[in-house]
Specification:
By secondary structure, the chain is an all-alpha fold. The protein is about 75% helix and about 0% strand. It contains nine helices and no strands.
Length: about 250
């Protein structure tokens, strides 16, 4: 699985460090507030809002770390979509924490929060599973497809439950389908990493010896062009990809 040009990697590393710091600081602050409330016996509305805000920031940082795991890979669009969903969910949650009672009782705001949270968590789960997308073993690829399908189905069913105000959940078929999808989801999440450790990737195809009449050319490529060549190569070597590009480009 190809990566972004190296120039983008320091930005991603900085974002990951920022998310880790945000999670740690938020959890420490939440712990301090909890200890202070137990020792002093005072825990008012303001302290409750601060505690909820820190937990929201910690949750956002945790899901953002999952999304950032793939933003330097070919499936980066899923990571960016997850970051957007997490940001919207965190923003709406913070607004609900600090808004007045009339605004918090709005069904629309609550539905937006629930839908964005479902999307953020589902995409975070997806991005973690997609870390195995570079494995070429057929069993891993089949398990990956099944797990991703189960994650999507669980997210769609939960979103439908929110959009219908729970009415769709009146039938037993809904909960049975949700249960089956959840079991497949959990099975794939646990089994795939273990399977990736046990199975070996298929042996690479033997590289044919160069023809006696062939001419060897050595090129120094800039990082962005090398990354594009790697993306074009896929499972092939750079040499094979370069020959293919030359065959297609030359008259």
């Amino acid at each position: 699985m190809s990566a972004d040009p190296p120039s983008n990697r320091p930005t991603v590393r900085g974002a990951r460090r920022a998310m880790i710091v945000a999670v740690v600081v938020s959890l420490v602050l939440a712990a301090v507030l909890g200890i202070a409330a137990l020792l002093t016996g005072e825990f008012g509305e303001l302290e409750g809002r601060i505690l909820l805000s820190t937990l929201v920031v910690a949750a956002f940082g945790t899901t953002a770390l999952c999304h950032l795991a793939v933003v330097t890979r070919r499936v980066r669009v899923v990571g960016y979509a997850g970051l957007a969903a997490s940001a919207v969910a965190a923003a709406v949650a913070l607004v609900l924490v600090w808004a007045d009672e009339a605004f918090r009782s709005s069904d629309l705001t609550t539905d937006v929060l629930l839908l964005c949270t479902i999307a953020a968590v589902a995409l975070a789960h997806t991005n973690l599973v997609l870390l195995l997308a570079g494995r070429a073993h057929p069993a891993i690829r089949a398990g990956l497809v099944g797990t991703l399908a189960a994650i999507a189905l669980v997210a769609v069913l939960l979103a439908t439950l929110v959009l219908t105000d729970g009415e769709i959940g009146d039938g037993s078929w809904f909960w049975r389908l949700l249960g089956v999808a959840g079991i497949v989801d959990a099975l794939g999440t646990i089994a795939l990493p273990v399977l990736a450790l046990l199975v070996r990737p298929p042996a690479p195809a033997p590289v044919s010896a160069p023809s006696p009449d062939s001419v060897r050319v050595v090129l120094d490529l800039p990082p962005d062009l090398a990354a594009r060549l790697d993306a074009h190569a896929g499972d092939r070597s750079r040499e094979e990809a370069a020959r293919d590009v030359l065959h297609r480009g030359l008259p």
